[in-house]
Amino acid sequence: MNTITTVAFDADDTLWRNEEIFTHAQQRFFDLLTPYHDEDYIKSHLEKVQIDNISHFGYGIKGFTLSMIETAIGLTEGRINGYEIHQIIQLAKEMLKAPVEILDGVHDALASLKGKVQLMIITKGDLLDQEGKVARSKLAKYFDFIEVVSDKNPKTYSDLLDRYQIQKTEFLMIGNSLKSDILPVLDIGSNAIHVPYHSTWVHEQVDSKTLQNYDILEAKGMSRAMDLLLETYKFKGN
Q1: Fold that domain 19-96 belongs to in CATH
Q2: What is the C-alpha to C-alpha distance for residues 213 and 216, in angstroms, rounded to an integer?
Q3: CB-side exposure of 208: number of CA atoms within 13 Å?
């Protein structure tokens, strides 16, 4: 039974709802472009542009907006007009101002852990956007450290643990994305609990063959994640 001194949480779709904001925005974008192409074709093209643009613009609403604009220009062969581009920009502003809806069990989980372990948020995306969501969520009071990173891979986690002088075996990550929150943490010898969300962006999905190489703790909901944490690990001093 490993002793845990630091528990980190992903933010989007782990602490609060996020995917619905993107899904709703995408649908409005599809509606804008359906005079030119059918929805499935627009969706597949947008997904490809988003993935191609991650290395340029990173994750988050701003990168998503630039990908929508690029997709709109490409699929309309430049016929989309300035007013329609303005609609896409306004859509992005609405996304950035969307209310932060905390997921069930999160407040109780954080309150139960506060004071027992160090608590962190490790989230990827645009710095200004993520900081704004943390502020609007009113969850910052629970956390000792908040990190917004450009990507989540084994090096990202190793560098963070080195910076905070956290032993890898004493670190545990809780998140909804197998690709970003779970597998890279297990790869460095740390601990993780997967709390699935009902929908996952295609770029965050992992094939079943890859998953065969991992022993993953999975909890349906944050309350169950806390039960699993207490059943599987111990805290220093307990």
Answers
A1: DNA polymerase; domain 1 (1.10.150)
A2: 9
A3: 0
d(CA 192, CA 185): 7
In the chain, where the domains are located: 3-16+101-235, 19-96
Let me know: does 65 contact 88? Beta carbons within 8 Å.
yes
pLDDT recorded at residue 211 = 78
Contacts for 83 with CB less than 8 Å, ≥ 6 apart: none
* % the chain with pLDDT above 90: 80
CA count, 13 A, side-chain hemisphere, 218? 11
The H-assigned helical ranges of 97-153 are 106-113, 127-137
Predicted local confidence at residue 237, as pLDDT: 58
Per-residue confidence (pLDDT) for residue 195, from 0 to 100: 96
Q: Tell me: domain 3-16+101-235, CATH 3.40.50.1000, correct?
A: yes
The helix or strand, by DSSP H or E, that contains position 226, with its residue range, turns out to be helix 222-232
pLDDT one-digit tens code per residue, 38-74: 999 999 999 999 999 988 888 888 999 999 999 999 9
Distance in angstroms (rounded) separating the CA atoms of residues 191 and 187:
9
